[in-house]
Structures are given as C-alpha cells and as structure tokens.
Amino acid sequence: MKLFVLFPEVVIALNPFADRMSEGGFFMYIILICLLLSLFFIVKGFLSIKTNIKTSKKMLKLAIDTSLLGLAIGFFSSVIGLITAFDSIEAMGNADPSIFAGGLKLSLLTATFGLLTFIIARIGIVILRGLQKN
Fold it and tell me: What residue spans define the domains of the chain?
C-alpha cells in the first residue's frame, strides 16, 4: 500500500493497461504469459550465446514458438469476440451502434495485444539470430 503513496504516477500510468487487460478477458492473460515466456527465452538465449550455442539456438526456437502462439491466440480470441458480439446483436434484434462498437473494441483488444507480443518478441529474435550467426 505504501508503494502507491510513494509513486502515484506509476499507478496512474499502469491503470489503463490493467483496465485493458481486464476488458480483454481471459485470453489477454494467456497472451501475456506467451510474451513473458518469449522474453525469458530470448534473454536466456542471449546469456548462453557465448557458453553454449546449442542452448542458445534451442531458446531461439522456443521464443519463436511462443511468440507465434501469442499471435495465434490473439486472433483466435478476436474471432471468438466477434462471434459473441454478433450473437448479442442477433439476440437483441435491433443493432444498436454503441453495443456493436463495444463488441468490436473488445474483440480487437486481444488481436492488438497478440500483435504487440509478436512484434516485441520478433525484435529480440532477429537480434539473437544475428548474434548467433556471428
């Protein structure tokens, strides 16, 4: 609790991210796990590049796989969100634009976070692959 008193600007900066994570639902946390795993494998690959190149190449492959998994989960959950939005519109009978826009926003959150995960991991993968070739 004292952390929030000492650094209120950190809480304010992280609050929109936490709101988006909770809005996106369960799949956002799975994508976050994929991002953290990708970053872990990239860092481990960087640390083992001098001592054990075989381990570094294995970490590179795992980072590639987890970043692709985060991207695929993001788009999968986006499609599920769109289906849910269309189901609610169908059940209401009258398409209210605000409800439709809210459903689209929620479905695009996971796709955006999946893409962000992929891009962040891909930057590390490209750098690690370049260092491994040297």
Answer: 32-133
- Among all chains, which residue has been given the structure tokens 């439709």? 100
Tokens of residue 13, six digits: 């900066």
Contact between residue 110 and residue 84 where contact means Cβ atoms under 8 Å apart: no
Identify the residue whose tokens are 């492959």: 61
Query: Rounded to an integer, what distance in angstroms lies between the CA atom of residue 43 and that of residue 52?
Result: 14
Residues 62 and 46: their CA atoms lie apart, in Å, by 13
CA–CA dist 58, 64 (Å, integer): 10
Name residues whose C-beta falls within 8 Å of residue 72's C-beta, 6 or more positions apart in sequence.
114
Q: For 39-62, how does the pLDDT look when each residue is reduced to its tens digit (9 = 90+)?
A: 999 999 999 988 998 999 999 999
Each residue's pLDDT tens digit, 89-100: 777 777 677 777
Written as six digits, the tokens of 46 are 């960087």
pLDDT at 1: 45
